[in-house]
Write a structure and sequence with these properties.
The complex is a heterodimer. Chain A is mostly helical. Chain A is 78% helix and 0% strand. In chain A, helix 1 packs antiparallel against helix 12 and helix 7 packs across helix 8. By secondary structure, chain B is mainly α. Chain B has a single domain, classed as MetI-like (MetI-like fold, Orthogonal Bundle), CATH 1.10.3720.10. In chain B, helix 2 packs across helix 3, helix 3 runs parallel beside helix 7 and helix 4 packs antiparallel against helix 7. The chains are: A mainly alpha, B mainly alpha. At the A-B interface, helix 1, helix 6, helix 7, helix 10 and helix 11 of A face helix 4, helix 5, helix 10, helix 11 and helix 12 of B.
């Protein structure tokens, strides 16, 4: 198992190198290149010369890359061009808000998705199954930003129960206030993700229910609840976990959009601000953080898979 | 084995046999026709009239008017152009890059496979909306940038499906036969294998079109997509969100059209997948007997 983890980590390296190089090289692809990015397009010759000397822009590209990567690995992405604060500090301010939203949405998604999947898989093609499958299709098909707008219209504009713009309140400081701010964004993102969960877990459950061991268990007189809960569920989770890993990208993307709908102060809004102000060090920092997080999540999913299924041997 | 025009008509007829798929097809046709013939319709998406701003839906303006007094229905119709053009362009870009990459990787399966697939992994290293945003950060905000960003984000799926198809087909007798006649690798890949791998790729194109429309709208909603004043559904939702109190229909109706378009494409994609699976099963059965 340890060697499997190591091998997966080693496999990640080339992708991480290439992707980080692309992120680094981003500012070279911008019109005017890194000089224009750092000092603006109307800088004097002296300013340009000073910037080149200060940042070592006259050195070979690869040397500059390894220099940048070395700093990035220490969490140093330089200063934001806009606010002149360290990029990592800005990201550090926003990351907890995004994580809190992601966890809350995951809770909603599991609470809705798993019961929906089980209820429709127990009697495939029944009216309930068709109704719930329709629900999953809707949850997946309705754009998160439109769903968010509809929820705001209902709960904030019409009923005036909840705020339309969400603040970040750390959950441990004031759970009630945090819930009030989080409930609409978490519902918006969570309903979408629950559609993913429901659709794929249903398929996976139905596939398992046709297996011989289920028939054997039934023939032995094992109670139905135990068959579904213990036998089928455990085996159906395997392919399901892979799908969830693959769908993680949609989850992260959904977080960015959801934050924009509710003007929620997370990492997603930071990156949008960075793009609209052309704050390249900040863009690079945000993208690298998301890139690494996403790759680690995928690794974690792989490991979870190995842990759930003792049949798979990892040499 | 190759799907001829007869079988495409047959497929279309079977598709229309499913009620949800037929309804989806009808809706898409309506949107597409409106987008193509928008110039001939009595609709004006650009003329401003501040006296008539943020009007609710009425006989004169079915979807109401926006903050500058422009007709929202007209903007939705012209926005369909932006959406459909982006979707079409993105699918073409994704297929033009992804399919050859997948074919070469799967056909040779040697170092070329490793190198190409690592590059695809790099494209997959970021969620596609972030990938598109990063690309727009470099290219600047424009319609072309949105199109390229959405298109490149779709490359990995095409590459993977083409690769899987080639790997399944290259062992079969008709490929070996072509090779024994002296067919070059390029000929075998593009003229022998590709035509037989078309159906999953076509289904993928439809699925990707719905993803592209969603992605384009999301980028515009985030304020980094097609720049104004070009009408775009995502941009309308973005602005409409600021007027939820004054004119709730502003954000609701364009969003409804967007959602129905995406759902329709998704429904057709899934119906086609099911039909093609049955079709393949039929073929296999016939050949087995």
């Amino acid at each position: 198992m340890t060697s499997y983890v190591l091998r997966r980590l080693v496999q990640m390296l080339p992708v991480l190198f290439l992707a980080s190089f692309a992120v680094f090289a981003m500012i070279y692809a911008v019109p005017g290149g890194p000089v224009a990015v750092l000092v603006g397009e109307n800088a004097s010759k002296e300013e340009i010369a000073a910037a080149i000397a200060r940042h070592g822009l006259d050195r070979p590209l690869l040397i500059q890359y390894f220099d940048w990567l070395g700093n990035a690995l220490r969490g140093d992405f330089g200063l934001s061009l806009h606010s002149r604060q360290p990029v990592m500090a800005l990201i550090g301010e926003r990351l907890p808000a995004s994580l809190q939203l992601a966890v809350a949405a995951l809770v909603v998604a599991l609470l809705v998705g798993i019961p929906v999947a089980v209820a429709s898989a127990v009697r495939p093609n029944s009216w309930l199954d068709r109704l719930l499958s329709g629900w999953s299709a809707l949850a997946l098909g309705v754009p998160t930003f439109w769903l968010g707008i509809l929820l705001i219209l209902l709960f904030a504009v019409e009923l005036r129960w909840l705020p339309s713009a969400s603040r970040h309140v750390p959950f441990w400081e004031s759970p009630a206030e945090a819930m009030r701010s989080l409930i609409l964004p978490a519902l918006t993102l969570g309903i979408y993700v629950s559609g993913i969960f429901a659709r794929f877990l249903r398929a996976s459950l139905i596939g398992e229910a046709r297996q011989d061991y289920v028939r054997t268990a039934r023939a032995k007189g094992v109670p139905e609840r135990r068959i579904v809960g213990l036998h089928i569920m455990r085996n159906a989770l395997l392919p399901f976990v892979t799908i969830v890993g693959l769908m993680m990208a949609n989850f992260i993307g959904g977080t960015v959009v959801t934050e924009a709908v509710f003007t929620y102060p997370g990492l997603g809004r930071l990156i949008i601000q960075a793009i609209s102000t052309r704050d390249y060090p900040l863009i690079q920092g945000c993208i690298m953080v998301i890139l690494v997080a996403y790759m680690l999540i995928n690794l974690a999913v792989d490991l979870l898979y190995a842990w759930i299924d003792p049949r798979i041997e990892y040499r | 084995m190759r799907a001829g025009s007869g079988s495409i008509l047959q497929l279309l007829r079977r598709l229309c046999g499913r009620r949800s798929a037929a309804a989806s097809l009808a809706f898409l046709l309506l949107v597409a026709l409106a987008a193509v013939f928008a110039d001939w319709l009595p609709l004006d998406p650009l003329t401003q009239s501040l006296a008539d701003s943020l009007m609710p839906p009425s006989a004169a303006a079915w979807f109401g008017t926006d903050e500058l007094g422009r007709d929202i229905l007209a903007r939705v119709v012209y926005g369909a152009r932006t959406s459909l053009a982006t979707a079409f362009g993105a699918v073409v870009i994704a297929a033009a890059i992804g399919v050859p990459v997948g074919l070469v990787a799967g056909f040779f399966g040697d170092w070329r496979d490793s190198v190409l697939m690592r590059c695809i992994d790099v494209l997959l290293a970021l969620p596609n909306i972030l990938f598109a945003m990063a690309l727009i950060a470099v290219l600047g905000r424009s319609q072309a940038a949105a199109l390229v960003a959405v298109g490149i984000a779709g490359v990995p799926t095409f590459a993977r499906i083409a690769r899987a198809q080639v790997m399944a087909l290259r062992q079969l007798d008709f490929v070996a036969a072509t090779r024994s006649f002296g067919g070059s690798s390029g000929y075998i890949m593009f003229r022998t294998i590709l035509p037989n791998a078309m159906s999953p790729l076509v289904v993928q194109a439809i699925v990707l079109a719905s993803i592209a429309i969603l992605l384009e709208a999301a980028l515009a909603f985030l304020g980094v997509g097609v720049p104004p004043p070009t009408p775009s559904w995502g941009e309308m939702l973005r602005t409409g969100k600021s007027y939820l109190h004054e004119a709730p229909s502003y954000a609701v109706l364009p969003g409804l059209v967007l959602t129905l378009t995406i759902l329709s494409l998704d429904t057709i994609g899934r119906a086609l997948t099911a039909l093609l699976d049955n079709h393949d099963a039929d073929l296999a059965e016939r050949r087995g007997s």
